[in-house]
Amino acid sequence: MTPDQYCQDKAAKAGSSFHYSSLLLPAERRRALTALHAWRIELDAIVHEDHDAGVALQRLDWWRAELRRLFEGSPNHPVSLALQPYLASLPQAEMTQVLDGTEMDLAQSRYFDEAALGRYCRLVGGTLGKLAARLLGVSDPRTLESAEKLGLSLMRIRIVREVGHDARQSRIYIPVDTLQRFEVTAADIMQSRHSPQFVAMMQDQAAQARALYQEALALLPRADRRAQRAMLALAAIQHALLDEIEASQFQVLNQRIGLTPLRKLWLAWKTWLRNG
């Protein structure tokens, strides 16, 4: 199996949102974005698959060393090998920030306030948004600002979508002060207690995701919209999913809500046409 095939199997399975959003990219851009997405999945697995904190930290340390090897020209992992041709577009400092965010995620399963959660989201979601934008092509620095906002928006949707799944892993990403403000306890989430207070809190989270999305679209220069269509398509799919979740009254504590492959394809195609 080649490094590109490994990344394809890991990150771009048929039917996934990423598969449809990147389907129309030129082959080289698609390989680059798929490799970056696969790297993100490898790091995400450290947090969500390793229940032994010591083992998880060892894996993260290995990836820190692997990042150094990648930029020194001697990577070992298939994902790193797949990323190697695109290093001119991937600042090492930004990739290190993603590793720092992963370490922050390992160190805590709760966030006290919005400032703490925001820092984590910027390190991971915002930085990955910028890295993806760089791989797709940036001619205006405002595009990176837009990409960061888009990444933050997608991160907020992930928090809403996965709140039940994360709780079953003893993780709650909604800050403690937000829980208190909406009179929702950690035990409510851990025990999947759906309530009007929970719905109101999720509506607030969804509103934040949508506000970030609108800010991202407003910042994106017309000159780079065509190049950034894959990420715009991914965002369109995820925001349609957020709409479905809200229509269900945020029944995300004990079930997963998804879109059909046909709808994902239609949303991606529409976004590509609109930004052509």
Give a structural overview.
The protein is mainly α. The chain has a single domain (3-274), classed as Farnesyl Diphosphate Synthase (Orthogonal Bundle), CATH 1.10.600.10. 72% of the residues lie in helices and 0% in strands. It is built from 15 helices and no strands. The longest helix is centred in the last third of the chain and has 24 residues, at 196-219. It is globular and about 50 Å long. The protein starts with a helix and ends with a helix. The model has no long low-confidence stretch (mean pLDDT 95).
User: Could you say what the CATH architecture is?
Assistant: Orthogonal Bundle
Whole-Å distance between the termini? 35 Å
- Helix-strand sequence: HHHHHHHHHHHHHHH
How many structural domains are formed by the residues? 1
Mean pLDDT across all residues, rounded?
95
Amount of helix:
over 70%
The CATH topology label is Farnesyl Diphosphate Synthase
Could you say which overall geometry the principal axes of the C-alpha atoms support?
A: globular
Count of individual helical segments: 15
Q: What would you call the structural class? A: mainly alpha
- Low-pLDDT parts are none
Radius of gyration: 18 Å
Residues in β-strands, percent:
under 5%
Q: Tally of extended strands? A: 0
- CATH class equals Mainly Alpha
CATH H level: which superfamily? Farnesyl Diphosphate Synthase
Question: What's the story with the biggest beta sheet?
Answer: none
